[in-house]
Amino acid sequence: MKIAVVVGNPKPASRTLRVAEAVTDVIEKLLPGENAERRVIDLADHSSRLFEWPEPTLAELNDAVAASDVLVVASPTYKATYTGLLKAFLDRYPSNGLNGVVAVPVMTGAADTHAMATEVNLRPLLVELGATVPSRGLYVVMTRIAELEATAAEWGEANAAALVPAITGRLGVRHG
Asked: Hey, what domains does the chain have and what are their CATH numbers?
């Protein structure tokens, strides 16, 4: 199972990255019999090249994400939505460029005020790109980062019934 983690926080090694990795840990635990290969793409490390065309490194990253079985997409909340950094990376895909990839939208923020941004803004973008988004996304308030593992585990428990069949179905198509 190939898992791609894309983080759109402009700060390298951010708390948003930490949240995305916690969600990925939960997904791996939901499928204990699968051998997971994780690829983490911290867009802060590639920001200077996002608007260069062609750009071989970004093309390779886009290809790796499109070839993944599961995609965890994470962004801090900026002006009630995801970052321009994440948007610039995802804009490199054509319509349906993530066709069939099972995606999980994740956002972080300062308060619950924008908790719906995950569902209202990030989910539709992933669906437009052809990704399958079978479960609710996760929004983590940064003041509760100390509870991250419990929050991620609770999210996984609540969404396992939708996630597991979607992922195993993808794996059956890809690996069967």
From this structure: 2-167 (3.40.50.360)
* 3-state class (DSSP) for residue 104: strand
Q: What percent of the chain has pLDDT over 70?
A: 98
Q: How crowded is residue 122: how many other Cβ atoms within 10 Å of its Cβ?
A: 28
Residue 135's SS3 state is: coil
Q: Please, which pLDDT band fits residue 172 given cuts at 50, 70 and 90?
A: confident
Q: Strands 102-109 and 138-141, how do they pair? A: parallel
The SS3 of residue 95 is: coil
User: What is the rounded distance in angstroms from the CA atom of residue 98 to the CA atom of residue 108?
Assistant: 23
End-to-end CA distance of the chain: 12
Reply yes or no on whether the pLDDT at 137 is more than 50: yes
The two three-digit tokens of residue 9, written as one number: 């926080």
Torsion on CA atoms 155, 161, 162, 164, rounded to nearest 10:
90
